[in-house]
Design goal:
It is found in: Cell membrane. InterPro entries: GT87 (IPR018584). With about 425 residues, the protein is mainly α. The protein has 19 helices and no strands.
């Protein structure tokens, strides 16, 4: 009976074939990333500073004692974040790290499921295994698990925020965003979305949750003020190592300050124009607008801010999912060349071409984020110019091939 199920009596559809082929690959890739690569660890350990800070917090010892002259991972969370992550130090470091890896992996899987539902898909869709395989094969998910940081949980908070925002559950959307702010403000640019959509209630818990958690944590920490005096100035600095932002790579390669500022300014203009076109002409297409604007805002913050690391690219999953929409701005090969730059786990370090390989390895993320911003800008501007030329700006800037034809608009009289 079991063997007979391996050979179906009727021909499978393309969707069924995709699921049969990709689901085993996706499941095994998830298991490999979680059980082997993440448990083994590699190169950088983001978990140990967090565990030591949580242990110090629980034992009423100083938390903010990092020496920022060293390039080793530092503990950078505010007291509110320390309060939230403190339970990880209740058990020994090894088992705590395994549980933290598992929590991030589960959070990523839940976030991917929520993304599927946001786009009207279910687990029986052929897109589901492709999404899981693509996510866990990427650098951003792999190194989040291997380095054992909190980005998987932040991704879940981000996607939950977007889902609740689209459902007009404003207070709960703000709670999701506020919880991520309590640990790190990486999603702060997303406040643009409730601002332009008039969902003002989001701001109450988005600000209130981290403030409340800090009020609780401050008296429980013996050196909370050191976060303000020591850690905040470090966070505001731009460093020239492990930094794929323009300013980081510019400093590493010794570019003059005026050139770094000019590149940041030029790309900031492209971002501003893209956001204006999205808001002016696309905001009524809610899923497209929210997910595309999210990608523009976050890729800009990674690229133009003081610090951008490759594994932040996980937060761009909602933008990449818009490829399923007929009016997506990433249905073109340059967009996915950009995605290769900031998502691929490939290393370009070369023993034969040392300098060229090092440059390709260090620059691929920066170039990928930059190309993504340029592509989105170019697509939106091209649609705007085409709509203006054809005199249909009042109806939006949808691509011409998606507009109803004249024969469809005019009823045929019998």
């Amino acid at each position: 009976m079991f063997l007979r199920s391996l050979e179906p009596r009727t021909a499978r559809t393309t969707a069924d074939v995709v699921k049969v082929v990709v689901w085993p690959l996706a499941v095994m890739t998830v298991l490999h990333r979680v059980v082997i690569k993440a448990v083994n660890g590699f190169r950088t350990d983001d978990f140990t500073p967090v565990y030591n800070a949580a242990l110090a917090f629980l034992n009423r010892r100083p938390v903010y004692t990092a020496n920022f002259q060293w390039v080793d991972p530092h503990y950078l969370y505010p007291p509110s974040g320390t309060l939230l992550i403190s339970p990880i130090a209740v058990i020994d470091p090894e088992r705590s790290r395994w549980l933290f890896i598992l929590a991030n992996a589960v959070a990523i899987l839940i976030a991917l499921y929520l993304l599927l539902r946001m786009f009207g898909l279910r687990l029986d869709s052929p897109v589901a295994p492709i999404l899981v395989l693509g996510a866990f094969a990427s650098e951003t998910v792999t190194n989040t698990l291997v380095f054992t940081n909190i980005n998987g949980l932040v991704l879940l908070g981000q996607v939950a925020f977007l889902v609740l925002l689209l459902k007009r559950r404003d207070l709960w959307a703000g709670v999701m965003l506020g919880l991520t702010f309590a640990v790190k403000p990486i999603l702060a640019p997303l406040l643009f979305l409730p601002l332009v959509r008039g969902q003002w209630k989001v701001f109450i818990p988005a600000a209130g949750v981290p403030i409340l958690l800090n009020i609780i944590a401050w008296p429980l920490s013996v050196d909370a003020w050191n976060f303000v005096e020591l850690t905040v100035p470090y966070l505001l600095e731009s460093r020239d190592y492990f930094n794929s932002a323009i300013v980081g790579n510019g400093m590493y390669y010794g570019l003059p300050g005026w050139l770094i500022l000019g590149l940041r300014g030029l790309l900031a203009v492209l971002v501003a124009v893209s956001l204006w076109l999205l808001y002016r002409y696309c905001r009524n297409d809610e899923v497209f607008f929210v997910c595309t604007a999210t990608g523009v805002l976050l890729s800009a913050s990674f690229l133009l801010g003081s610090l951008g690391q490759m594994y932040y690219s996980m937060m761009l999953f909602p933008l990449l999912m818009t490829v399923l929409l007929p009016n997506s701005v990433v249905r073109n090969w340059p967009a996915w060349l950009a995605v290769y730059g900031f998502m691929s786990y490939d290393s370009w370090l070369s023993g034969r071409w040392v300098e060229a390989g090092r440059a390709a390895e260090y620059m691929k993320t920066t170039l990928g984020w930059s190309l993504l911003i340029i592509v989105i800008f170019a697509v939106l501007v091209d649609r705007y110019l085409a709509a203006r030329r054809e005199g249909r700006l009042a109806d939006g800037i949808e691509p011409a091939h998606l507009l109803p034809s004249k024969t469809e608009e005019t009823p045929v009289r019998a």
